């Protein structure tokens, strides 16, 4: 491991990525791919919008508990629920700076445009198969972990 990778691993230790995904099979694949590409990060799974809002609310007791990133499945199971949750996060005075990456099986241009309209930071069409997830998270890690400087939340 090179010096930069070592420094970034240490920098992100005890950090969480919140995954909002209503399909347990998809969560299983995402979790394993995240463990391979983000071994120093805890992936937290929420399966619906209400659970996610309660989790984020609980994190406000100690702002350092807020996730570093949120991976949000658009269809929870309807896209309107995903957009509603995205809008809630992006308009909330404490959560709006959290990067939200929308994940979806859909490559529909309207889904993509609407996700950006509600201030999603990125839109990723879900890869098919574990190897494609690993490849996706390799690029994802390079951009969101190594290249981008994200805000820090402190109490």
Instruction: Kindly estimate the percentage of residues that lie in beta strands according to DSSP.
Output: 15-25%
Q: How many helical elements? A: 6
> Average pLDDT value?
90
What is the domain tally? 1
Q: Total number of β-strand segments? A: 5
- What Rg do the Cα atoms give? 15 Å
- Order of strands in the sheet with the most strands? 2-1-3-4-5
Structural class: alpha/beta
What is the CATH level 1 assignment?
Alpha Beta
What would you note in describing this structure?
By secondary structure, the protein is α/β, with parallel strands linked by helices. It has a single domain, classed as Rossmann fold. The chain is built from six helices and five strands. A five-stranded parallel sheet has the order 2-1-3-4-5, with helices on both faces. Helix 5 links the parallel strand 4 and strand 5 (122-125). Helix 2 crosses helix 6. It is globular, with a radius of gyration of 15 Å. Residues 1-12 have low confidence and may be disordered.
């Amino acid at each position: 491991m090179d010096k930069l990778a070592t420094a970034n691993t240490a920098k992100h230790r005890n950090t969480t990525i919140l995954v909002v995904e209503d399909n347990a099979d998809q969560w299983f694949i995402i979790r394993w791919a995240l463990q391979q590409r983000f071994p120093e990060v805890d992936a937290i799974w929420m399966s619906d919008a209400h659970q996610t809002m309660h989790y984020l609310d609980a994190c406000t007791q100690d702002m350092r508990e807020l996730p570093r990133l949120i991976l949000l499945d658009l269809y929870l199971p309807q896209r309107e629920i995903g957009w509603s949750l995205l809008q809630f996060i992006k308009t909330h005075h404490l959560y709006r700076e959290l990067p939200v990456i929308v994940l979806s099986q859909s490559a529909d241009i309207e889904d993509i445009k609407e996700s950006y309209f509600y201030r999603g930071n990125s839109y990723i069409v879900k890869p098919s198969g574990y190897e494609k997830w690993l490849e996706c998270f390799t690029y994802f890690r390079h951009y969101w972990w190594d290249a981008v400087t994200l805000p820090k939340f402190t109490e």
